[in-house]
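debug: dumping io for the single-chain case to check the tokenizer round-trip. Nothing else runs in this session.
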Amino acid sequence: MRQRRNPEQNGSATFILSISGRPKFMAGPPSNAPCPATEALLAESVQSLLATLPDRQLKQIAQAKVEGFTNQEVAEKLGCSLATIERRLKMIRLIWEKEQTE
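debug: decoded output
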């Protein structure tokens, strides 16, 4: 017979603390999405790394991996063997490591 403390809560709200330290309710769980500034910085970083790759196919492989494809999916997409993709990923890592140290 009790009433809810927050009638707008409808069961899916999440309790968080605001900057002031007072409790506050959100309409749902907190988002894991990065803020727009972080997204822009990440996109810029990816583009600068892709620009260091000398070969178009290396760029395609790296882009596919950034997008979350598995090695097998990349191999199928590009019509290569899995071993070729793994070899080229090692090459990409070496190029990027060299780029980081310079």
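debug: round-trip ok. The first strand starts at residue 14 and ends at 17.
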